[in-house]
Amino acid sequence: MTKSVGVIGGGQLARMMIAPAKALGIDIKVLAESEGSPAQVAATQVGDYKDLDTVLQFAKTVDVITFDHEHVPLQILEHLEAEGFIVEPSSKALRFAQNKLDMREKITQLGVPSPDWAKVSTAAELDQFIQSHGGVAILKTPTGGYDGKGVKVVRSSADANDWLNGNPLLVEEKVNFVRELAQLSARNRSGEWSSWDLVETIQKDGVCAEVNSPAPNANFALASQIAKTIAEGLDVTGVLAVEMFETVDGRLLVNELAMRPHNSGHFSIEGSATSQFEQHIRAVSGMPLGDTSPTKTYSVMLNLLGLNDSNDFGLVDRELDGASVHVYGKAPRVGRKMGHITAISNESLADARQIATGVFKGLQA
């Protein structure tokens, strides 16, 4: 029986796993990268997650290892697994969240719809792809990119001189999409799978600014099937976020994957009977999954992005004017995700958005 879960990464996602884990009777421990991290309240160790000895010593204190980010080197996770430690999601699954080229190859094999793509490592290969895709493409570093980092629009190889160093890169068609969607689901260690409603995500400067649940006028059945195919095909344990483009002709194309609680699912804390954080703990612990039914019909989540180097938005989670405010305990910085606001309603998305926006404006003042 799983009695304890260790989370590598001391960020806000780890922090938001603490309360539901304790409510489930699970002892939660955190390996934080630095003192003063958002999850410091549960940190039992501070150290480098890229150091094998550090991670090994941490793993000895818990029954299961999981993560709040995808950056732990696979070699370390493979070593833990070889020593008999339980890692969820496993290194075999997590490699597809760490490396976008591996992910594209695998989901293409699974028949999952994706943008046209290719692996390139030379200027000639890149130029050939660009020329065959209307003179423009999206270039991505296979590893390390997030929130708009590691991605650039290119119209010739000259736009990527600083990236073309002989290492493989991922190039994709520039999709003519009408909106971005995200399908959140979870799969436990016995293979049970469950999903939340498909959501619409609205970006600002490459960072998610708003999430609407459920996504209006969306193909829920197709999105759910895509997520289930990926979760089972990659043998994912835990929460899986599948970010998608909806094209002008109604197709859904997979953009990115995350194997952990995800910003697109933060609405579930108030908006679902089981939050993504509780569900992740359930899944990696081998427990049955919880009910993902909405608590009210509509949810709107707004991210609190840093305005300057001093406004920390109060550093206290609270209910305010009909909305729920969550802050992450991060040092303020312009554009940084400092927290989020969620409002739920049985009336409409517009009603939920009005409530959330009113609180948002007050905190921005």
Describe the fold and architecture.
With 365 residues, this protein is α+β, with helices and mostly antiparallel strands. It folds into three domains: 4-87, Rossmann fold (3-Layer(aba) Sandwich), CATH 3.40.50.20; 116-173, ATP-grasp fold, A domain (Dna Ligase, domain 1, 2-Layer Sandwich); 177-364, ATP-grasp fold, B domain (D-amino Acid Aminotransferase, Chain A, domain 1), CATH 3.30.470.20. It is 27% helix and 29% strand. It is built from ten helices and 19 strands. It has helices at 12-23, 52-59, 74-82, 91-98, 100-109, 123-131, 220-233, 268-271, 276-285, 349-364, and strands at 4-8, 27-32, 43-46, 64-67, 86-87, 117-120, 137-140, 151-154, 169-173, 177-187, 193-195, 199-204, 207-213, 238-247, 252-258, 298-305, 318-320, 323-327, 337-345. Strands 10, 11, 12, 13, 14, 15, 16, 17, 18 and 19 form a ten-stranded antiparallel beta sheet that branches. Strands 3-2-1-4-5 form a five-stranded parallel beta sheet, with helices on both faces. A hairpin with a 5-residue loop joins strand 10 and strand 11 (193-195). The termini are far apart.
Strand content: 25-35%
Mean pLDDT: 95
Helix content: 25-40%
Q: Count structural domains.
A: 3
Give a brief description.
With 365 residues, this protein is of the alpha+beta class.
Give the tags.
D-amino Acid Aminotransferase, Chain A, domain 1; Rossmann fold; Dna Ligase, domain 1; 365 residues
Secondary-structure map with pairings?
Elements: E1 4-8, H1 12-23, E2 27-32, E3 43-46, H2 52-59, E4 64-67, H3 74-82, E5 86-87, H4 91-98, H5 100-109, E6 117-120, H6 123-131, E7 137-140, E8 151-154, E9 169-173, E10 177-187, E11 193-195, E12 199-204, E13 207-213, H7 220-233, E14 238-247, E15 252-258, H8 268-271, H9 276-285, E16 298-305, E17 318-320, E18 323-327, E19 337-345, H10 349-364
Parallel strand pairs: 1-2, 1-4, 2-3, 4-5
Antiparallel strand pairs: 6-9, 7-8, 7-9, 10-11, 10-12, 10-14, 12-13, 13-16, 14-15, 16-19, 17-18, 18-19
Helix pairs in contact: 1-9, 3-4, 4-5
